[in-house]
Structures are given as C-alpha cells and as structure tokens.
Amino acid sequence: MSDKKVSRPCHHCKSRSASAPTDTSKIHYEKFWLYRHCSSVQQRDQQAQKAGQLFSGLLAMNVVFLGSAFISSMIFNKVAITLADVWILLSILKVLCLFWIIYYLLGTSRQPHAVLYRDSHAGAIWIRGSVLLFGSCSILLKVFQIGYSTILIHCKSRVEIVFPSIGILFICTQAYFLWHHSKDCIQVQHNFTRCGLMLTIATNLLVWLLAVTNDTLHMEIESQLREVEQRFAGKAPSHPHWCNETTLCTCPNTTICKVFQKGYILLYPFNTEYCLICCSVLYVMWKNVGRHISHHHIPHTKPKFKLQGVVFGPLLGTSAVIIGACVFMMYQIQATSLVPSRQVFVIYYSYYIVLLPLMSVGAVIGTIIHALEKKELDTLKNPTRSLDVVLLMGAALGQIGMSYFSIVALVATDPRDLLNSLNLSYSVLLIFQNITQNVFVIDGLHRQRVTPGKKEDTKEEQNHEVYSQRRVSVLELGQEIRKASLSYIHTYSHLSWKRRVLREISFFLILCNIILWVMPTFGAHPIFENGMERSFYGYSTWFVIVNFGLPLGVFYRMHSVGGLLELYVTA
C-alpha cells in the first residue's frame, strides 16, 4: 500500500514533466517570431526579449550607418552624392516611420491587453511639453524653408519644397504619438514594435546629423546678408570662395524674403533639439516594450511641487533670471547690428563668470549634504532614471567639447586680450559647472525618497484647508494672510537643515538653468558671433562644432531642470 501511495504522485509527476516541455515549446513558438528561427533563445522569455532588442538594435545601426555614409559622401564628394539624394533617402525613412506610427495608433495599441501597464516615470509633462514646443518651432522652420525656396523656385529644386513638407507631416504625427503613448508598456507585437521604434530613432538621428553638418543654406543666407551689409556700408562686396555658386541665386530685396532668412537662422537650433528629445522618449518606449510593472513599483502618491521651505533660493534665482534677461535683451539689440560692439560681449561673459561659480558652489554643497545623509541608494530597475543619467552625461559633452575647442583657440591666439581672457574664463568655469552639477543631480536621483511622517502630513493638510477657505470680509482676509505667513514660517522652521539647504540649492539651480536655457535657445550665440573661434578653425569646421555642441547644451539645461525639479520635490 505504501508503495502504491508513493508511486501515484511519482507517476503524476512523470506525466506532468513529460507534457511540460511540449506545452512550453508550443507557447514559446507561438509567442515570438525569433523562437522559430533561433534555437539559442528557446529557454526563457528574458532571452527572447534580449534577442528582440538585439535584432531591432542591429536594424537601427544599419540604417544609421547607411544614412551616415550618404551624408559623408555628400560632404566630401558633392558631385556623386548631392543634398537632394540625402533628402530622398530621409524622405523614404520618414514615410516608413509614418506608416508604422499610424499602424501603432490604429492597430497595435487598440488590441486587447495591448497596454496593461504604463510607466509613471516616463513621459514627464515637461518632456512632452518640450516635444510640443520644439516641434512647433520645427514646423515653423519648415514653413520658412518652404517659403524661401518658393521665392527662389527659378533656381531651386522642387525637392527643396517636397522634403520640408514631408518633414512637417512627420513632426506632427510623431509629436501626437509621443504625447499620448510615451508611457506605454506594450504587451503585444513586441518585435515589430521594437523595430518600428528603432527605425524612428534612427531617422531622428539622421535628421539631426544632417542638420549638424549641412551648412549650405546657412552659407547662402550669410553671403547674401553680408553683401547687403557691405552695400549699406558703401563697400564693394567681396565674396568668399564658398559663396561663388550661391550668388547666382540671390534673394530679392523684399521684406518677406528677409523674414524667411532671419526666421530660418533663428529657429534652426530648435529642429536639432526636437530630434534629440524625440530620440530620448522613443528610447524609453523601446526599453518598456514587454515590461511588466509590479504594484509596489507604482507610486501611490506622487510628490507635488510646493513653494514651502525655501526663501533664499527663489530670491537669488529670481535675481539671476532678471539680470540674465536684461543682459540677453541688450545682447540681442547690439549683437545683431552691422558692427557688434565688444562691450556687449564683455557684459555677456561677465554675467556668466559671476553666475557659474555660484552654481558650482551650490552643487558642491548639495553633493556634500547627500554624502552626510543616511539615505539608502534606490537600486530598483528604472529605465527612465538610467536614461536620465546617460542623457545628463552625454548632453554635457556638448558644452564641454565646445569649451575645450575655445580654450585651444584662445590660448593659441592672444589670451591676454580682455575679450579673449573673459572667454577663456567662461569656458573653464563652464566645464567645472557642468561636472559639479552632474554629480549633484545624478547622486540625488539615486537616493530613496523621503516619506514624511504622519504629524507632518496632518499639518500640511490643515494648512491646505486654511489656504482653501474663502473669506468675504476684509478683516478676515487679513487674518488669513497672517495665518498663511505664520504657517509658511512654521513649515520652514520645522524642516531639517539638510532638507532645507537641499531645497534652497535645487530651487536656485532650477532658475539658473532656466535662464541659461532661454539665452542660447532664442538667439544668444556669442561663441559663434564673436568671430574669434570661427576665424581660427574656419567657417565650415566651426559651424559643425557649434551645431553639434549648442543643441546638446540647450538640451542639457532643459534636462537638468527636470532632474533638479525631482530633487526639489523629493528632498
């Protein structure tokens, strides 16, 4: 009897073990296309996910290499490969991306159980708002490009009108897609979705690479504007060697043509910025394909932005913003004149030389406070945070790289000159500020959040109730203002000194990064307009360096604001 009792479960186990492999293999073969073709990935779903990521990554790599080969050939051999050929290739890629995005919107995302999870960390409102802002500016840039090419249709190719039109459609569709689906953790059609996302990332990278390296229209507009300025000054126009071919296609002396020219130059950095932001959001979506988010990873209460517990940070930051706005307006008025004065460059660099050390000291103090705190590191898997770290480190290379190029040019020419010495100090301080701020933000992002106690919660709820009550009489309104002031002082005094200093530093750095983002975004480019580095490296070389580093620098400031906001809220 005992043998029979033992043999029954064993027989049952054997039958289960004998049938298990067949069922598992059937499920795996039905789930993934790669399981039917790669015998090495038949063990676990994780291996299939890695194989799918590898396959889509190889697709993107080949597309990027093909497009880079076209763009490089256009630069070094303009006879065999022309700019129109590159535009045709990018148009084909954009059309393919449009087909996939439409299929995702109308097909994949509407399937049953397609989006079971949404990543709360992905697609922050400031990221999606940036996509809409830079996308709108990129659309306006394309409109200016179409208008400029239409006026000169007698000497321009029709491709120069068709390509921006396809670009407008691509930007609109992609912006809508990222606004509504940036948080998706898609659970169906894994490999097809990964390939579509990687193809879109590769297309945005190639559009960015073309914008960085193609200075044809810039040189054409620069030569025409310089000729007009020389005629206005009463001098004979002297054409550089690179504008001999463009003088035959001259913009007529009309206001609308000058608006298109100025608008194109002003909005040009927005297009490169838009491509970089889209690549970052698409990469997070690619990492979230097939991802399962457990309930304890989903935050039940999101920390809200409250202007409590900070006094000196807003005061210093607001002062930096106001002074920076005045410097920016002064620079825009004088630097765009026929003969820019040295004084405006001296004021511009002096502002940075004062502000950057303050930001560096604040970041160093914040890093020391992080080291003194007893918070444990947050080791949970978070693709968004990992990407934030990579983007902060990568985007900082833009400003750091331009600074090193400027340092070499300044030391090799005349570092004793006042303007050159200010530019040299600005470049050195900018490198140090980028490094210290990166250390502060990245260290803070990896710290676990502080959960306030119950007493503090009840006090905040009572204060919120006090704020939300409406009074009619003037006397009661004065009493409420007094209560609100006392409540603010009470909240400020009850914060620990470490949290208080961290919030002050974070708020100060937020406002400083905002003004340092606004100034280069809307046209303050002394690194290109002072002419020193441009004459040292040459127009085309310095154009590539600036268009590579400037959008990364703008993106770094904007991304730093997002990271610092998270540090402020969670401090």
TrEMBL record:
Q: Which domain of life is it from?
A: Eukaryota
**Would you indicate the residue range of the signal peptide?**
none
Cellular component aspect of the GO annotation: plasma membrane
- InterPro entries this protein is in? Otopetrin
Question: What is any Pfam family matched here?
Answer: Otopetrin
Q: Which GO terms describe its molecular function?
A: proton channel activity
Membrane-spanning parts? 54-75, 87-106, 126-149, 161-179, 191-211, 265-286, 307-333, 345-369, 389-412, 424-445, 505-524, 536-556
Subcellular localization, as worded in the UniProt entry: Cell membrane
**Lipid bilayer topology:** Multi-pass membrane protein
- Indicate the family of this protein: Belongs to the otopetrin family.
Q: Tell me what this protein is called.
A: OTOP3 protein
